[in-house]
Write a structure and sequence with these properties.
By secondary structure, the protein is of the alpha+beta class. It is about 20% helix and about 40% strand. The protein has one domain: Homing Intron 3 (I-Ppo) Encoded Endonuclease, Chain A, CATH 3.90.75. Bound molecules: zinc ion (ZN).
Length: about 100
């Protein structure tokens, strides 16, 4: 079946020195990393949670914004690798690579 959701096997990585249970999830060819939040007892999108804590510690990521991996490695969810983009810019970036994006 095309476009089915795939979930990879869990593994434990070190994130800023601490162990973290992670897995990849998403449509074929479009998977992002999730980590297991022990407090909330659920899987969360790692890149969105990291960016939310960094940019909006007291609220949510505003509607219409997505989180992009600067080095294009979706398993590299370190703060310095993540930036917020409007979903249209994000889509264009992946389609045409028209935008050059870097951290200021
Ligand atoms: Zn992206």
């Amino acid at each position: 079946m095309k476009n089915k959701i795939i979930t990879s096997q869990e593994k434990t990585i070190k994130y800023y020195g601490k162990p973290l249970r992670v897995r990849m999830k998403g449509r074929e060819g479009n998977q992002y990393q999730q980590y297991y939040d022990n407090k909330e007892k659920k899987w969360v999108w790692a890149h969105r949670r990291v960016a939310q804590k960094m940019y909006f510690p007291k609220s949510k990521i505003p509607k219409g914004f997505e989180v992009h991996h600067l080095d294009e490695d979706r398993e590299n969810n370190k703060r310095e690798n993540l930036i917020l983009l409007h979903y249209k810019d994000h889509r264009d970036l992946h389609k045409k690579k028209a935008l050059e994006v870097k951290r200021l």
